[in-house]
Structures are given as structure tokens and as C-alpha cells.
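User: Second chain of the day. Same drill as before.
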Amino acid sequence: MKIALIAHDKMKPEIIEFAKKYKDVLKKHTLFATGTTGHKIIEATGLNIKCFRSGPLGGDQEMGAHVANGEIVI
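Assistant: Same format as last time:
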């Protein structure tokens, strides 16, 4: 399964804690994230995550394009 991880700046601590809690489940899947979120999760968990640009630099749009093209299913 492909999983996208995106969090607003104020929610980054929560998504990092989520990733730490579910690391063993998440590592079995293909993970994608916007840049800052992804790098913070990688730093905290060591998970393998394909990072797009950070949100303000177009990462949200990159992620949306992959969803729109059926490459990441929601």
C-alpha cells in the first residue's frame, strides 16, 4: 500500500509521534511525504520515505498530482 504523510506545521509533532507509534506497520508500506514532514519523520524513525518538496515550495501540489494520476491512491 502507498501511504502519504502530510501535516500542517502545528501538527508535525503529532504526525511524528504517530509514525513512531506505528513504525512497524508503516515500514511494510511505500511511504510518501512533503519535504519537511518527511525529513522530520525519517530523523525520528529511520523509516524509508520518498520526500517531495516542502509544502510552501510545491510539495502539496506534487503530492496532489501523484494522487490525480493514480500513482498514490486515497
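The chain has one domain: 2-68.

User: Great, on to the next one.
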